Amino acid sequence: MAKHKTKPNSALPSKEELLSFIRERSGKVGAREIARAFGLKNAARAELKRMLRDLADSGVVDQRRKKLHQPGALPPVTLADVTGRDSDGELIAVPAEWDEEQHGAPPKIRISVPRRPKPGEAAGVGDRVLLRTEEIRGGEDEIRHTARVIKILDRAKHRMLGIFRKLPPGGGRLIPVDKKSLGRGELSIPPHATGDAEDGELVAAEVSKQGRFGLPVAHVKERLGSVKGERAVSVIAIHTHGIPTLFAREALAEAEAAQPAGLSKREDWRKIPLVTIDPADARDHDDAVFAEPDTDPNNRDGFVALVAIADVAHYVTPGSALDRDALERGNSVYFPDRVVPMLPERISNDLCSLKPAVDRAALAVRMVIGADGRKRSHTFHRILMKSAAKLNYQQAQDAIDGRSDDTTGPLLGPVLKPLYDAYFTIKKARDERGPLDLDLPERKILLKPDGTLDRVTVPQRLDAHRLIEEFMILANVAAAETLERLGTPLIYRVHDEPARERVEALREFLHTLEIPFTRGGTIRPEQFNAVLARIKGRPAENLVNEVVLRTQAQAEYASENYGHFGLALRRYAHFTSPIRRYADLIVHRALIRALKLGDGGLPAEADMAALSEIAARISTAERRAMVAERETTDRLIAHFLADRIGATFEGRISGVTRAGLFVKLRDTGADGFIPARTIGDDYFQYREHEHAMVGRSTGETHRLGDEVTVRLVEAIPVAGALRFELLSEGSAAAKRPRGSVSGPARERKRDERKPPRKRRR
Hints:
Blueprint: H1 15-24, H2 31-38, H3 43-57, E1 62-64, E2 67-69, E3 77-85, E4 91-95, H4 100-103, E5 109-111, E6 128-135, E7 145-154, E8 159-166, E9 172-176, H5 179-182, E10 187-189, E11 201-207, E12 218-226, H6 232-240, H7 249-257, E13 267-268, E14 275-278, E15 287-293, E16 303-310, H8 321-329, E17 333-334, E18 339-340, H9 345-351, E19 359-369, E20 375-386, E21 389-392, H10 393-400, H11 412-433, E22 444-447, E23 453-457, H12 463-485, E24 492-494, H13 500-512, H14 525-535, H15 541-551, E25 556-558, H16 582-595, H17 608-641, E26 648-657, E27 660-665, E28 671-675, E29 684-687, E30 692-695, E31 701-703, E32 707-716, E33 721-726, H18 743-752
Parallel strand pairs: 5-7, 13-20, 14-21
Antiparallel strand pairs: 1-2, 3-4, 3-6, 4-5, 6-7, 8-9, 8-11, 9-10, 11-12, 15-16, 16-19, 17-18, 19-20, 22-23, 24-25, 26-27, 26-32, 27-28, 29-30, 30-31, 32-33
């Protein structure tokens, strides 16, 4: 890389010098690095930021994650899908996650294949791969990036899940269960390839190449049971998304051979009455808490808070079979009827579950909290502890509210009241910090003993929930601060600020509601909170919460820190759930290494590059789990509603697209679709900035967040798809009665109707 000489008197670099510097820093650099390279100080730094904003506004550079890129530039480690080959037969890939609305068409990447590829480097079309990318300098080709394969994460899928339907005299059809595959039609199963599957059975089939005529042909490879079985719904999601369910034999052997940790090289905290507070149906308990008033006269009205986390790193060591399986999973996946754990039960539900009155190894942080709620200091400790009690959220809250039981009664004075006092103190600093405060209730699926849906509830949000949440956030911040101070590489939990285009779209939308939103300058969570507070209790409250949520970026894992916008934190790392998240295990190992706390630390070769690769993998695994969990809920509710065709429901509009309206039902939270061509008698046009469909002739408006009444028209349980008919009229300042649209308008609507698009998730 060329060296940039400091200009005399800290003179600003020219536009050409800035762009040259950005290019030579592998396409990625921040304002701080530029200022240091050119020796800029004080006023010159402020002028530099103005120049960079102008370059970003003019499209010369992109500004993402508080870093500058040339448009179309890619990060050095990129998750990508191999889409085809060029005229020379070389593989071409595109980034797996690319915002086309914001950055245009995704850039193409040419994959360089070594003469003698190592195992795992020989990718093929359809594979999902982790690439180390490099920008091509001065090339005239439309392809501006080349890359080598770091790892193949997912081979091209030639299998399909579906329902087998027998046909006489033999063979049958495969009906795909994936929503995206429904529109591609059925597949033919020859008589010799049914695998003895029964009619209506869920099967996994291998898809053969389609000939010139007839349906594609598939061969049944695995029978997965009746689609009506209690476990079929989650099985569909598991197989569709390739979620690993079986542990390697070596991993299971390591888990069974593991023995409880002793006191050797650990601090003895067994007399401290740490307690676990979890959901009533929790299977594992990996975090425990305790607090007491600080006796230091210099910290009057302050507290000492302790958070102890199961020492998973003691049992799952780098490079072990358990470690390899945990990385492949990335996280545990939670379905209504089962959990697909990241670690075997011997580890997650036994040795690393902080059971009451049982010695357990833990990694703990001791935090000193001031009277203002701010953390003054913290230290980490490798300990042996003994939980004083296993409590659930409602149980802890009931005790504080005067309804103690046999377990919480003895703990109320010495344990629970100090915990709540510490929480209310910590809350002062949280409120002052002003993290994003969206009001979006979470729904919980409750099943009957036979695995079918019983009901959908919205659990009450208690102070007990908030207490644990705030203690965990403090511990996560302490972990990130310690590792950053000691210069130890780690995986951060990061959340970017919203893209400028989305903020501008939100501003235009709020303008239609006569709600002002600050233009320009740095965006902060408190600005969104001010909007949410202003709209609270008004008819548009749900609508504004939804739109603000859609404005936000998605949180992810990264080896470089760009802060957590939603929590309003400058540095943040996941430390508190190593049983179910691989990122937390990495942070535990990093702390053990940095603080010399014994065995099981992060290997010396685990540098920034290696952690970048891991961060990309576990971010993908997290998104995979979220989609699988959501699809399972959709299928369960579709099964539940399948025999209620023609029934009417109350709900609200949860999405607006050119194709139509998405509606979320009030009672069950079920999501369904209303095709645009079926809305009323007018021709409805999509107005993106208003998040609305508006009748061309009547002005009748259906907007995101509107309360509506719908009739269920169709349910496809295996795909989790519901189709509704809209019964409610929309709003408009001056609207003709439904059915009074003029003849020409009706004819225009009929002529311009398009077939409904398939719903995409």
